[in-house]
Specification:
The complex is a heterodimer of chains A (470) and B (521).
Chain A lengths: L21 E5 L12 H4 L4 H10 L15 H5 L5 E5 L1 H4 L8 H13 L4 E2 L15 E3 L22 E2 L24 E2 L3 E4 L8 H14 L3 E3 L15 E5 L8 H6 L2 E5 L8 H7 L4 E7 L4 H9 L5 E5 L15 H14 L7 E5 L5 H10 L3 E4 L1 H6 L23 H26 L14 E3 H13 L10
Chain B lengths: L4 H9 L18 E5 L8 H5 L34 H4 L5 E5 L13 H13 L21 E3 L19 E2 L11 E2 L3 E3 L9 H14 L3 E2 L16 E5 L8 H6 L2 E5 L11 E2 L6 H7 L7 E2 L10 H14 L4 E6 L5 H11 L3 E5 L8 E2 H6 L4 H15 L6 E5 L5 H10 L3 E4 L1 H6 L31 H25 L15 E3 L5 H4 L13
Parallel strand pairs in B: 6-16, 7-8, 8-9, 9-12, 12-13, 13-15, 15-16
Antiparallel strand pairs in B: 1-2, 3-17, 4-5, 10-11
The chains are: A alpha/beta (470), B alpha/beta (521).
Chain lengths: 470, 521
């Protein structure tokens, strides 16, 4: 058995206090001043004391970011001078898709490498759009299952990004005639890609490249950012080239295991040439995730491409559409198009855009992806608040330009460690030991529409609203 | 099996008395804030006027006292003659919505639902005013299901005492005790380790008074449980903590926990901070070490193995009923029928939105299906198989209030298993910080030497009694509306339910819309 894959996490404290959810409000003028029962001293989490230390160190004023909303100060103050509100700064984090909760949770994972664990039940809506309309299945009594992350058995999250022959041919003497194609495996179904915006300083990109190298995955990167400093990680970098410019980057190509060409109508004509530069090169083609994606994927799968990389919107939607579909629906469409044409197992499909949480990885695989590519999560791991100020060339509130690559890489490694463990949790519950077996395995999931139809339609008749009805 | 009216009356006469059991805290949180400014002359008019006890005035105490605004019914009161803000001669009183409300609760347990349950636990009554205590903001499942508008002709004008809310646990007629609970629900498993001992003992004492049950969870059997053993289910979970011959012998019901709704497919989690010397001793483990129970039972990989487990319990304790607690996978219907053939008396489905002391967030949100889908699926399948009448089907996992219980029963369950609501009755705010450090700052889900003993057993007991008696009032009113004398008649009556998303626009308008609110989580 190969050595068990593990991502080594290590605490990487934030450089700035994370934006906390709660802000305590005090009506100081009503304070008794001498009741000797001051709730500030009795806080179970010591936040008032910590905050006082913060002030005394002349740091910027801030909210009580470690407040856990137990309300004891509110309810026990002898004069009732406390109240609580949502920190207005917390509200401004991210947007409707990249919610403050997702950003906060990503920060915590990047800090500690631990998976988010909490008490009480689920706190969110019944169901949601996109990936939130899928529940994953689990093994119960009657099926053999596996042990999960704390068990004895090895759960492999390894996936391939290299193409596979559709059949093997043997000679009369039973020797293999088919020339085996090169194999490229990554130990978890997550790749990195350079974000489309943000403070992408060399150190920030090096943080991503270094962490990709450490966890054994790949990072898609634009060649203009591929400076000498990246050479150390060249085996983990996938330069994103075009049919018209790749010849300028033959040195980079020689150092790479895999390169990506952005789609153009005759892109497949360049594959041979690329492999002349670097024999055995794994080739990906990047295409926009729009209504032509399924057709292009089918056409490309008949060529010598290894992987097709689809670029969705940052919010996990189809591009170039008035009513953009969700990533889950796009993955299903493309995957099923290839299944229908009996060619799915030949190529690998990587999807990016809106992969914000570990659950999106598992659900993307269920829908039919081989792997995903993450971008904004990498920035958030480096404390980005998704305030989008950088888009207007304004200053970054967390000074991303000052990130050092060792610290940054550890934050991303921690995030991937947490995501990997969460993937193991879900796979353990599935009773599936191979990430490759999840691909397209919708039988191990439950979908909102199906559950409504199977459980509620016999009771309530025909559903009269579309979507999840929220 | 319908019971006669006299038996119902006799049983209901044993139901416990409610008693005012105020908050443990000095400043309970309310939906509204009533403030008195310095122009108050302490005339005492507001105290005389307010029937809800917002304004207190003690003899020989001339200074005005801070209003108990959590009792205020808010802007509804403007229509009343006794509206204090309008009647105050000094205009010293103001009323406004409490801004803290947006920080409490979540999509499932809204702030109003939490506050309303605190009120029920304090008084034993349903809250006056406009607190919405039956619907949350989840936008699906129970929050979209309504009871059909009843025909006034069906109304059964009988007192609560004549209404049967009992639950028969053993429907197999196999010679084992035909245990009847007075309520259609019992307490879900909470382990010593995840939850404070006084909370657990308080639950057991309340179960005794309410003639229902509570459950040990997977944390062993503290000696404090022994006096209440007739009302405590012993849970056998994969870690087998505290499972001994005597704890099996104590139990009227033994529950096999195969899976838990909040973390289906995963074992129990108790993080190291909460493994105190007492917890470690009871679980026979090492202090400070995190405890992860395996998943699943490694001795069970087939229905035959499952039956072997049940037979083992039945052999040890010939009087025990056996419950099988599972989560809600795709094939929950097959699991149910498998458990029936293995000899279970109770099949307990714990839906994916159930409570926990600690679970990975990814599991709580994503693994297994919500209980609303599982109940009709299982009920229908057991009917088709012809074994429905022999099995007690219990539902849990996201059952928050009395109306959810009634809806679950109408969908096909015999009763419900309740966990979170018990804790809310003890002033849980669902902040979800139960899992680590010193545990719960509100002294509920903690084993901390200081925090873990702040709650008094008697207080916990009475708060629970009060809440369940308030729930019973709601069940009785629902049953009366449809001319039903017993909650057993409600089982599987999905014809009494409607789902808003399955109604035409004009029909939908007749029902209360699903509350909507965008929350910051």
């Amino acid at each position: 058995m190969p050595k068990k894959y593990a991502i080594h996490t290590k605490n990487a404290a934030p450089r700035f206090p994370p934006v906390g959810k709660y802000a305590t409000v005090e009506f100081r003028e009503n304070c008794a001043g001498s009741c000797r029962l001051c709730v500030r001293k009795q806080c179970v989490y010591n936040i008032f004391k910590d905050n006082f230390l913060h002030w005394s160190n002349m740091c910027e004023p801030q909210y009580l970011y470690t407040c856990k909303s137990c309300y004891r100060c509110v309810e026990e103050c002898t004069k009732g001078i406390f109240s609580m509100s949502i920190n207005p700064e917390y509200r401004t984090l991210g947007d409707d898709y990249w919610t403050p909760g997702i950003i906060n949770s990503t920060w915590a994972q990047a800090h500690t490498g631990n998976i988010p664990v909490s008490g009480a039940g689920y706190r969110g809506p019944f169901a949601g759009e996109g990936f939130d309309s899928i529940w994953t299945d689990m093994s119960e009594i009657v099926r053999p299952t596996r042990d999960g992350i704390h068990g004895r058995e090895y759960i492999s999250t390894m996936v391939e990004l290299s193409r596979r022959p559709m059949k093997l041919e043997f000679g009369e003497d039973m020797s293999l005639i088919t020339k085996p194609s090169p194999i490229l495996e990554i130990p978890l179904p997550v790749t990195f890609q350079q974000p489309s915006f943000g403070i992408l300083s060399e150190e920030v990109l090096l943080s991503m490249a270094r962490s990709a190298n450490e966890v054994g995955t790949l990072m898609f990167i634009d060649p203009e950012n591929y400076s000498f400093a990246f050479s150390e990680f060249s085996s983990s970098l996938v330069p994103r080239l075009t049919a018209s410019n790749y010849y300028k980057y033959s040195e980079i190509i020689r150092k790479s295991q895999m390169v990506e060409l952005s789609y153009s109508p005759t892109v497949e004509n360049e594959f041979t040439r690329l492999r002349e530069i670097k024999p055995g090169l794994i080739i990906s083609v990047g295409i926009p995730l729009n209504n032509k994606a399924a057709g292009l994927a089918l056409a490309l799968s008949k060529t010598e491409v290894d992987t097709v990389h689809f670029y969705g919107s940052d919010n996990g939607r189809e591009l170039d559409a008035d009513n953009p579909r969700y990533l889950k629906d796009m993955i299903r469409e493309i995957h099923l198009e290839l299944v229908k044409n009996n060619i799915r197992s030949r190529v690998n499909l990587v999807f990016s855009g809106g992969i914000a949480m570990a659950e999106h990885v598992a659900k993307s695989l269920i829908c039919g992806a081989d792997a995903v590519a993450v971008d904004l999560s990498l920035l958030i791991a480096l404390e980005c608040r998704l305030c989008y100020r950088c888009k207007d060339s304004k200053s970054c509130p967390v000074k991303l330009e000052e990130v050092q690559q060792e610290w940054g890489a550890q934050r991303i490694i921690n995030l991937m460690g947490a995501w990997h463990n969460q993937l193991l949790e879900v796979m353990g519950a599935f009773g599936i030991r191979e990430a490759r077996r999840i691909r397209g395995e919708v039988g191990r999931s439950m979908w909102f529409d199906d559950l409504e139809r199977d459980s509620f339609s016999p009771l309530f008749g025909t559903r009269k609203v579309t979507g999840i009805g929220y | 099996m319908m019971r006669n009216a006299q038996a119902v009356l006799n049983e209901n006469s044993r139901l416990p008395q409610t008693m005012i059991t105020p908050s443990r805290y000095r400043n309970p949180i309310g939906k509204y804030v009533v403030r008195r400014n310095s122009s108050c002359i302490s005339c005492g008019l507001c105290a005389d006027l307010c029937p809800y006890g917002v304004h207190l005035r003690y003899e020989n105490y001339s200074e005005p006292i801070r209003p108990l605004d959590y009792r205020c019914i808010g802007y509804q009161c403007e229509a009343n003659d006794f509206f204090c803000v309008k009647r105050c001669p000094q205009h010293a009183l103001t009323l406004r919505l409490n801004p803290i409300m947006e920080t409490i609760g979540d999509y499932r347990w809204s702030s109003e639902m939490i506050l309303a349950h605190w009120y029920m636990a304090e008084t034993g009554n349903l809250p006056p005013g406009d607190l919405e205590y039956s619907l949350g903001y989840s936008g699906g499942g129970f929050d979209k299901i309504r009871f059909r508008i009843p025909d006034p002709k069906d109304y059964l004008n009988i007192p609560n005492e004549e209404i049967d809310t009992s639950l028969l646990l053993n429907r197999r007629r196999d010679g084992r005790p035909e245990r009847v609970l007075s309520l259609p629900c019992y307490g879900g498993g909470m382990s010593f380790g995840s939850t404070a001992l006084p909370v657990l003992v308080g639950r057991a004492r309340a179960a005794e008074r309410l003639n229902t049950l509570t459950c040990t969870g997977e944390g062993g059997y503290p000696k404090e449980f022994v006096p209440h053993r007739d009302n405590i289910i012993t849970q056998v979970a994969t870690g087998l903590f505290g499972v001994r011959e005597e704890t099996i012998l104590y139990a009227p019901v033994v529950e096999f926990k195969y899976a838990q709704g909040a973390k289906p497919g995963l074992g129990g989690h108790l993080l190291g901070d909460k493994v105190t010397p007492e917890v470690a001793k009871l679980r026979e483990t090492v202090m400070g070490n995190s405890l992860f129970s395996p998943f699943p039972f490694h001795s069970v990989y087939s229905v035959e193995d499952h039956k072997k487990h049940l037979d083992w319990i039945k052999e040890i304790n010939p009087k025990a009923l056996v419950s099988v607690k599972v989560s809600t996978p795709t094939d929950s219907d097959m699991v149910a029928v498998g458990s029936y053939y293995a000899g279970a008396h109770i099949i307990h489905f714990d839906g994916s939105y159930g409570g926990t002391g600690a679970a990975p967030d990814i599991a709580k949100k994503n693994i297994a299906m919500p209980i609303e889908y599982a109940i009709p699926k299982v009920h229908r399948f057991l009917m088709t198989e012809g074994v429905r009448d022999e099995l007690c089907l219990m539902a849990s996992g996201g059952i928050r209030n009395a109306v959810d219980v009634a809806k679950a029963i109408a969908l096909g369950a015999n009763g419900c298993v309740i966990g979170t609501a018990d804790l809310v009755a003890m002033e849980c705010v669902r902040c979800s910080n139960c899992e680590s450090g010193r545990g719960c700052a509100r002294s509920i889900a903690t084993t901390d030497a200081e925090l873990g003993y702040e709650i008094k057993e008697e207080w916990a007991e009475q708060r629970l009694v009060n809440m369940y008696m308030a729930w019973r009032k709601q069940w009785c009113e629902i049953l009366r509306q449809y001319g039903l004398r017993s909650i057993k008649e409600l089982v599987g009556r999905s014809d009494l339910l409607v789902h808003l998303d399955y109604l035409d626009e004009d029909q939908r308008k007749k029902y209360q819309p699903a509350p909507k609110k965008k929350l910051i989580l």
